[in-house]
Amino acid sequence: MYRRGEVSGDGAAIIQPDVAEEQFGLEDVAWDTLASAAEAAAAEAGLEGMGDATFSVHRTSDGDIDSETFAQPVGPVEVTFSVGDDYTDAFYTTAADGTGLTRVG
């Protein structure tokens, strides 16, 4: 996890892909769009700034029930993140290219 400028690998987590299709490269994510997406999300949520933004980059699950990889994370790369302050947390997703900002919670 990369959070608040530090990398950590603490805790029990299975991070290795189960199938090759789960993998993605750093170049698959438009990293330069993440800060502006968080700022837009914060403004939409009525916050003065993005506050403690936390990002997670992952593949979405395969929703095709007839697929061999059904329910496995082999879909498009997606960024999930939160913005907030002491009183509010808002959760959003965006595509890896920075499009499709959607509030999810």
What do you see in this structure?
This protein has one domain. The chain is 10% helix and 26% strand. It contains one helix and six strands, in the order E-E-H-E-E-E-E. It has one helix at residues 34-44, and strands spanning 2-3, 6-7, 54-59, 77-84, 89-95, 102-103. Strands 3-4-5-6 form a four-stranded antiparallel sheet, with helices on one face. The radius of gyration is 15 Å and the shape is elongated.
Keywords:
105 residues; alpha+beta; four-stranded antiparallel beta sheet; two-stranded antiparallel sheet; 6 strands
Distance between the termini: 21 Å
Taken in chain order, the helices and strands follow as EEHEEEE
The number of strands is 6
The number of helical runs is 1
- Secondary-structure content class: alpha+beta
Quickly count the domains: 1
The residue fraction in helices comes out at 10-25%
Note the overall shape: elongated
Main sheet: strand order:
3-4-5-6
> What share of residues are in beta strands?
25-35%
Give the low-pLDDT segments. Answer: none
The largest pleated sheet is described as:
4 strands, antiparallel
Mind telling me the C-alpha Rg?
Answer: 15 Å
User: Average pLDDT value?
Assistant: 87
Strand and helix map with partners:
Elements: E1 2-3, E2 6-7, H1 34-44, E3 54-59, E4 77-84, E5 89-95, E6 102-103
Antiparallel strand pairs: 1-2, 3-4, 4-5, 5-6
